Amino acid sequence: MECSVKWAGVDGMTFLAETGSGHVVAMDGAPDGGGRNLAPRPMEMILVGAGGCTAYDVVLILKRGRQDVRGCEVHLDAERAETDPKVFTRISFTYKVSGRGLKPEAVERAVHLSAEKYCSASIMLGKTAEITHEWEIVEV
User: Fold this and answer.
1) pLDDT tens digit string along 39-71?
2) How far apart are CA 131 and CA 85, in angstroms?
3) CA pair distance 76, 126, nearest whole angstrom
4) CA torsion, points 36, 40, 43, 46, in degrees to nearest 10?
């Protein structure tokens, strides 16, 4: 896996990242740090990556378990250290999984497997952050 990150110009703090799969993502800083708030902050991208990683896992595990999953949302609420390096110190993952006749034990298992075995991003973040998981099922 590889990517490249390029500063977009001398008049701000916007950076463009190109992934190994050929996708481009913009990142920017806050106005008080020289940015113009045109794109997510790099640390927000890390949090988004963890959310995407675990949501992908949960949906895939439920589908493989023949569950009729129709939707999956993950809300992440994080706190960071007050001093540099401002690593994540606490992250709460809240899943809202929707479908028809979803078995609670299947959803719990999917969340657990993602958290403990498959989601590399959240497992890596767990090295500095206390991570909690909650989930709910919405019948559709």
Assistant:
1) 999 999 999 999 999 999 999 999 999 999 999
2) 19
3) 13
4) -160
Query: What global pTM score does this model have?
Result: 0.93
Question: In angstroms, how far is the first alpha carbon of the chain from the final one?
Answer: 38
SS3 label, residue 65: coil
Q: Is the pLDDT of residue 10 over 90?
A: no
Q: What is d(CA 73, CA 42) in angstroms, rounded to the nearest whole number?
A: 21
Position 4: which residue type? S
Summarize pLDDT for 11-47 with one digit per residue, the tens: 899 999 999 999 999 999 999 999 999 999 999 999 9
Task: State how far the Cα of 126 lies from the Cα of 61, in Å rounded to an integer.
Answer: 21
Residue 113 has pLDDT above 80, yes or no: yes
Residue from 48, 61, 44, 42 nearest 116 by CA: 61
| CATH classification number, 42-139, choose in 3.90.1140.10, 3.30.70.860, 3.30.300.20, 3.40.309.10 | 3.30.300.20
